[in-house]
Each structure stands twice: as structure tokens, then as C-alpha cells.
Specification:
Elements (H helix, E strand, L loop, with lengths): L15 H18 L13 E6 L5 H12 L3 E6 L11 H9 L5 E6 L4 H8 L3 E7 L5 H15 L6 E5 L6 H12 L3 E5 L9 H4 L3 E3 L2 H6 L3 E4 L15 H8 L3 H5 L6 E3 L12 H4 L6 H20 L2
Parallel strand pairs: 1-2, 1-3, 3-4, 5-6, 5-8, 6-7, 8-9
Helix pairs in contact: 1-5, 1-12, 2-12, 5-6, 5-12
């Protein structure tokens, strides 16, 4: 089977069958990662450039490890300290890299739509590793994979996405994916951090009270407060946010059932989530990190076959 698309620009562009294919392929690669020899020759002789215009640790390392596990040749490009600082355009940068015979570009950029722009202008396969406040498709895929591992299916699952929905590309990709796969989605947070268009554009429930938002969910996917993307104060203080929307032991104990806790990282401990919850038995945060490599291996493998 093949994906219906040449690139991975966002979950919005994927069919349900594409998502199922990626997740089933990721399951096979996770089994490979449990072996003593974790490397397979699937992408031998393929060259992949990791083009990161924004800071990243978890996503960049996860992609790099996935590429090496598939035996690809990798080039890591960081915008800081490069010709970008001297005024070189995005298209010039990528064309220079492509002249070195690159097959794939994994790209993170602060501007929404940057990967889509590249896909229209260059022949290489483009994978979106996060574009502005638009999408982060591989994060949504690994979140889905982690939920399926825990619950067996996404269909009928009740998922609450908590926090800075306004600035989160993770939230948007998760909403697209979960709705396509038959899950029920609630977004929870202060009114200033939840965009008004959500209820019209998506069949999601909006809840401003944290306890009500978690009361009937199976999973809470807790998002980081993205202060670097906020041009003006959108809540009174981090302490106030923690008191009103932070995931604490007291809050979880007040619910009528035990729920699973997720977080795409990096975490602001003591702000959106307390340390004892992040490291506790209800958390599958480290599973998400582990699953990220298998999911990205699946994406790279399937897109190479286009």
C-alpha cells in the first residue's frame, strides 16, 4: 500500500486510510526497535536534510534517530549561524541544498505554510516538522499511536486537549486526526487561549472549567503555554494559570475516574503540569517520546516509496 500524498504537510491533507497505514507501519518499526540490532537498510542511499529554522530538541533528535535507524544519510541544518543570517532566502537555501542531490527535506519553520511553499517549488519530498501555529503532523501521529497502544482504538475515545490551544500546532493536528478517526474532542483552557472559530470549523466541545473539561475524558493531552508566541498578556500570571488550569494530584483525585495524561513536550513543570503527575503512573509521556522514533520511521519509509 502507498500513501495518497507525496509529502506530509499536515494531517488535514491525509485520508483516514493514510493515517491507518502510517500507524500500522509504525507498529512494525517499533518491533524492529526492540531488537538487539535496531538498524534496517530501507533508506540506504537516500539523503535527508533536517532543515530547522526554529529551535527544537525532541523533534529534531527523533527525526535524526529515525533516519539513522533506516540507514539514510543525514544533513542537519540550523538557520542560526548559517547564510540565513546574511539574508539568504528560504528558496535559495533549499535550492543550494538540493543541488547536493537531497531526496527529502524535514522542515520546521516559524511561518505557517512554509513547507507548503517549498512543496510547490522543489522536487524533493517535504515533511512538516512544525510550521508556525499551523500543524505538527508527526506529533499528532505519535500521540495517536500512543493512545492506540493504551486503549486499542481511537474510535469513541474521549480526549481533552488542555491549555494554549490558540498558539498550538499540536492541538490543530491532533483535532484533525482525532476527528477523522472517530474520537470525541474537548478543548479546555481560558477563553483568551481558545480561538473562536474552533466550534464552527470542527465538531469539538469547548470547556473553560478544567474539572468539567476532564470529568468524562479518557485522555488529557496537556499543552505547553507558549509565551514566546504571545504578543500580549493573555492571563494574569503563570501562578494564576497553574491554580486555574494546572494538572495537579488534587485535581485528578477529584475526578470520577482515572484518566491518562499526555504531553507533547517540552513541559513547563509547575505551570501546566505538576512534576508528580508528569512522572506518575497515569502519565504516558515517555511512551510518546519512544513512539516518536517508530512513527517517524514509518513516515520516512512510506514517503520514500512514492
Amino acid at each position: 500500500m502507498k500513501l495518497s500524498t507525496k509529502h506530509l504537510l499536515g494531517i488535514k491533507d491525509l485520508l483516514k486510510e493514510d493515517i491507518e497505514l502510517i500507524l500500522s507501519t509504525a507498529k512494525e518499526f517499533k518491533e524492529v526497535l526492540q531488537r538487539p540490532i535496531k538498524k534496517v537498510p530501507s533508506l540506504r542511499d537516500k539523503t535527508i536534510v533536517n532543515l530547522f529554522y526554529e529551535n527544537s530538541t525532541r523533534t529534531r533528535i527523533s527525526f535524526e534517530l529515525a533516519e539513522k535507524r533506516l540507514s539514510a544519510d543525514t544533513i542537519n541544518f540550523s538557520a542560526s549561524g548559517s547564510s540565513v543570517d546574511k539574508g539568504e532566502t528560504l528558496l535559495d537555501t533549499v535550492n543550494n541544498i538540493l543541488s547536493m542531490k537531497v531526496d527529502m527535506v524535514v522542515m520546521r519553520h516559524a511561518s505557517s505554510g512554509a513547507p507548503h511553499f517549498l512543496a510547490k517549488h522543489i522536487p524533493a519530498v517535504i515533511i512538516n516538522a512544525g510550521d508556525g501555529t499551523n500543524e505538527h503532523p508527526t506529533q499528532a501521529l505519535l500521540d495517536a499511536f500512543s493512545m492506540i497502544e493504551k486503549f486499542g482504538t481511537l474510535k469513541g475515545l474521549h480526549v481533552s486537549i488542555v491549555g494554549d490551544i490558540m498558539h498550538s500546532r499540536v492541538a490543530l493536528s491532533n483535532i484533525y486526526l482525532l476527528k477523522k478517526m472517530g474520537a470525541h474532542v474537548t478543548v479546555v483552557g481560558p477563553p483568551t487561549l481558545i480561538p473562536k472559530y474552533l466550534t464552527e470549523a470542527f465538531d469539538v466541545k469547548v470547556e473553560y472549567d478544567i474539572k468539567k473539561g476532564l470529568q468524562n475524558c479518557d485522555v488529557a493531552n496537556v499543552l505547553r503555554i507558549q509565551l514566546e508566541r504571545q504578543n500580549q498578556p493573555l492571563f494574569s500570571s503563570l501562578r494564576e494559570y497553574n491554580l486555574s488550569y494546572g494538572i495537579s494530584r488534587k485535581l485528578l483525585d477529584s475526578l470520577n475516574k482515572e484518566i491518562t495524561i499526555m504531553h507533547p513536550g517540552p513541559m513547563n513543570r509547575g505551570v501546566e503540569i505538576d512534576s508528580d503527575i508528569a512522572d506518575g503512573h497515569q502519565s504516558i509521556i515517555l511512551n510518546q517520546v519512544e513512539n516518536g522514533v517508530a512513527v517517524r520511521m514509518a513516515v520516512l519509509y512510506l514517503l520514500t516509496d512514492q
